[in-house]
Every structure is written in C-alpha cells, then in structure tokens.
Specification:
The protein has about 70 residues and is mainly α. The chain is about 85% helix and about 0% strand. The chain has helices spanning about 1-10, 15-30, 35-70. The longest helix is centred in the last third of the chain and has 37 residues, at about 35-70. It is elongated and about 75 Å long.
C-alpha cells in the first residue's frame, strides 16, 4: 500500500494532488438537506435585516449627535 502511495505521489503534480485531496474532503462533508438549507438561508436573511436596521439607527443617531454638537 505504501508503495502504491509513493507511485501516486511521484507521478502527479501539485495541481492534481490538490484536486484529488479536495474531492476527497468534499466527500466527507455532511451536506444539509433542502429544508435545512431553506431554513438556514431564511435565518441568515433575517439576521442581515436586523443588523442592517440596527446599523442604520446607529448611523442616524450618531449623525444627529454630531450635527447637534457642531450646531449644523
């Protein structure tokens, strides 16, 4: 077995090894089911919306505070 691995390593270049190892790792991934993917996508969109609203509020309040301090 070790001799076979040596032959494989000696006969392939770095790009081939990269793709072979990448495909091997992708086979190990526990991919989500379609309902899980939809649920998680919805959760990400919801969090993005909430954070966006929060940052818009902070931006508006900090701008108003700066205008108040500068007397604009």
């Amino acid at each position: 077995m070790a001799e076979k691995e040596k032959k494989v390593k000696n006969s392939e270049n770095a790009i081939q090894r990269y793709f072979r190892e990448t495909l091997g790792e992708l086979r190990k991934v526990n991919w989500p089911t379609w309902p899980e993917a939809k649920r998680l996508t919805g959760l990400v969109l919801l969090v993005m919306l909430v954070v966006g609203i929060f940052l818009a509020g902070v931006d508006y309040l900090s701008g108003a505070l700066i205008n108040l301090v500068l007397g604009i």
